[in-house]
Write a structure and sequence with these properties.
Blueprint (H helix, E strand, L loop, with lengths): L15 H8 L5 H17 L5 E6 L9 H9 L5 E4 L1 H12 L3 E2 L6 H6 L2 E4 L2 E4 L4 H18 L2 E2 L1 H10 L6 H7 L4 E2 L7 H12 L4 E2 L1 H13 L4 E6 L2 H11 L5 E8 L15 H4 L3 E11 L2 H13 L2
Parallel strand pairs: 1-2, 1-9, 2-7, 6-8, 9-10, 10-11
Antiparallel strand pairs: 3-5, 4-5
Helix pairs in contact: 2-13, 3-8, 4-6, 6-9, 7-8
């Protein structure tokens, strides 16, 4: 047995980096996994020859953690983004309108009658969401249609980012040439607007296989791949699915609150991906059980802070 580390008490400090230094030795359950996530991300951030994937679901874009994601993209810490359709919706809506803090325990019938959507403990006035996305999309879609008739989803997302202000994730993805892939692109307001436009312009085509071709080139050309995977579902699976074609990710940090005992992809720990060749046998990886809105600010502050 290797020399064991002594469990040491955590001290109160004003420095997030100092806290992470303590986490290496506190022996504190998920705190130890948080430290491992920090160490893995610090290592792959330092590798210039490693293609880095950022995978996340739309729900956290409705929260203030959107600012953390934007900072990752603004600072070019990731090379590829894979996410869900609602990310486009929320990024547009929050750039052009406002969301509000609420409670998980609010009366949903009351909110419905008041014209307010509830996303967990986030309140979204109806006029700040669907109509905002519709107005924005119906303004730029004719411009895209006049340029050409066949578009990849990533191309459209970049056009959206080009037209959004600097507080937008998609703006910085466009500005820094970071591709954003949305495999389930019809599952939200963005997709509904594409459908609505198509109903009038049947020669307007969205070809998601263009995106898959681009992803194939990225994965096959990578010397090393790493991923920060937040939450499960299609964004997680698309990230690990494509990496199986190079025998798996070299690094992976997975943040989840789901249990593995129902066999779901969201609950599957990263080690399960080894059997599918989606994660290399000798990869550095960790599954961190936590609400991402809690741990991401600490991880980002430790990794990016002065």
């Amino acid at each position: 047995m290797n020399e064991l580390k002594e469990v040491k008490d955590l001290h109160i400090t004003d420095s997030v980096k100092e806290i992470f230094e303590f986490l290496a030795n506190v022996g504190g359950f998920q705190a130890a996994h948080l430290y491992k996530a920090y160490e893995i991300m610090k290592e792959f951030f330092a590798k210039d020859d490693c293609t880095k994937f950022l995978s996340f679901p739309a729900c956290i874009v409705a929260t203030g953690v959107r600012g953390i994601l934007r900072e990752f993209v603004k600072r070019k810490k990731f090379d590829v983004i894979i996410t869900t359709c609602g990310t486009i919706d929320h990024d547009i809506a929050r750039s052009l309108s406002k969301y509000y803090c609420g409670s998980f325990d609010m009366d949903d019938s009351f909110l419905r009658n008041e014209g307010i959507h509830r996303l967990g403990n986030i309140l979204i006035p109806q006029e700040n969401y669907g109509s905002v996305v519709e107005e924005f999309m119906q303004k730029i879609l004719p411009e895209l249609y006049n340029k050409k008739k066949i578009w990849g989803v990533r191309e459209i997302v970049w056009e959206i980012g080009k037209n959004l202000p600097e507080d937008s994730i998609l703006h910085w993805a466009y500005r820094n040439n970071i591709p954003v892939y949305v495999p389930g692109y019809t599952d939200g307001a963005f997709g509904s607007q594409l459908w609505s436009f198509y109903e009038i312009h049947h020669d307007f085509t969205v070809n998601s296989l263009i995106d898959e071709h681009e992803l194939a080139d990225i994965v096959m050309g990578a010397n090393c791949t790493a991923a920060l995977i937040i939450g499960g579902g299609i964004s997680k699976h698309h990230t690990i699915w494509w990496n199986q074609f190079r025998d798996g990710l070299d690094y992976a940090v997975y943040i989840t609150t789901a249990s593995e005992w129902d066999g779901s992809l969201s609950g599957a720990r990263m080690r399960e991906a080894i059997s599918w060749h989606k994660l290399k046998e000798k990869a550095k990886y960790v599954t961190l059980y936590s609400d991402a809105t809690i741990v991401l600010p600490f991880l980002a502050s430790a990794l990016l802070g002065d």
